[in-house]
Amino acid sequence: MEQNKVLPDETETEEIEGLERTSEYRLAANHHRSYTNHAQVGISPWDIQIGFGEMLKATPQQLIIQMNAHITMTPAHAKVLAEVLSAKVTEYEQKFGPISDPRQSEAVTRGVKGLKNR
Questions:
Q1: Which of 33, 74, 87, 92 yields a CA-CA distance of 20 to 30 A from 6?
Q2: DSSP state string for 18-87
Q3: Taking the model in full, what pTM does it have?
Q4: How is the chain split into domains, by residue range?
Q5: Which residue has the higher pLDDT, 100 or 32?
Q6: Model confidence over 58-82: pLDDT tens digits?
Q7: What is the rounded CA–CA span in Å between residue 51 and residue 47?
């Protein structure tokens, strides 16, 4: 999993162990972009699943989350993804400043009891 930003339908070249390798990134016919502000993670002995959704409503009486996609990957790929995401969050904060933890937002915690514990 490459840490550099690569846009869809682009090619990049890198050197690995003295050999030059070209990687092509192509959009699948069914590719789509989606916004997410909610994620659920599940595990099994064989894989890790991540569900992505959008919180549409959060009140003390009702929470509505529209789940838009589920991704399943091997634990090894999930570990690499976690490392890449951590590096990108660090890079983002160095460029743009600290990211506040949305679980600490009073408005969110008033709307969703127990969200701080997730």
A1: 74
A2: TEEEEEEE---TT------SEEEEEE-SS-EEEEEEEEEEE-SS-EEEEEEEEEEE-HHHHHHHHHHHHH
A3: 0.67
A4: 33-117
A5: 100
A6: 888 888 999 999 999 999 999 999 9
A7: 13
